Amino acid sequence: MGAKDWMLFYASDDVSKVLRSSPSLDREATRAFVERLYPSHEIRQIEDGDLDHANPPDGTVYAGVFDGLSVICTGDAANDSPTDLPPRFLREASGRTLYLHAMHSVVDFFAYAIWEPDGTLRRSFSLSPDSGVIEDLGTPLPFEERFLAGDQEFVESLGDDHEYPFRFHPLDLGEAALRALFGFNFEGVWQEDDPELEDIVLAGYTVTPR
Question: Please, which domain of life does this record's source organism belong to (predicted)?
Fold first, then answer.
């Protein structure tokens, strides 16, 4: 497993539906979106990215505003506790559902959270082998249930690592979250109607504090 991402999705429509539609990037709205999220920063446009490369380094973001969906890939979404997300990112949701998804394969870290359109936290869950369960708020979603119940399939996927602190691999849960929430995976089984992530163009920017 080698997937890494730190992403925020602001959705007024079904995320998977929007991504499957090969949406067109609104560059003017995207620039304004980034400026709102980084108001005290110098913002400089760089080469475009795409949704298949969702783990930009510090000081760089990739973003896109589409009909029914805004996306930003930023290290600010990579907090151990999703509820530590800076408030300005929550305010931007403004009546939309906000999803956070973050994975780091080097340390087997996974986190996700969902805020309702009224700003209420619906679910936040994060964990890593070194830190254990870091945050566990709200009711688990259906895609989590087999993992949290210690389904034998996921136990067997750990192989001979009997000292592993969980009965599943966090990155497997992370991929299940991608499928359930957004309709795609970075790694794993490809489905016929999956969006081509390389075709989801995101505008690139450096964001430097003034």
Answer: Bacteria
Q: Which domain holds residue 58?
A: 4-209
The CB-based long-range contact list for 95-99 (8 Å cut-off, 24+ gap) reads 95/12, 96/10, 96/11, 96/12, 96/70, 97/10, 97/11, 97/12, 98/8, 98/9, 98/10, 98/11, 99/7, 99/8, 99/9, 99/11, 99/15, 99/181, 99/182
Question: Which amino acid is present at 150?
Answer: G
Terminal C-alpha separation, the chain: 37
CA–CA distance, 9 with 100 (Å, rounded to integer): 7
Type of residue numbered 80: D
User: Cα torsion for 100, 102, 108, 109, to the nearest 10°?
Assistant: -50
Q: What is the pLDDT of residues 80-102, one digit of tens each?
A: 999 999 999 999 999 999 999 99
DSSP secondary structure string for all residues of 45-67: EEEEEETT---PPTTEEEEEEET
Domain count along the chain? 1
**Structure tokens that stand for 71 in this block:** 């996306």
H or E element, residue 201: strand 201-209
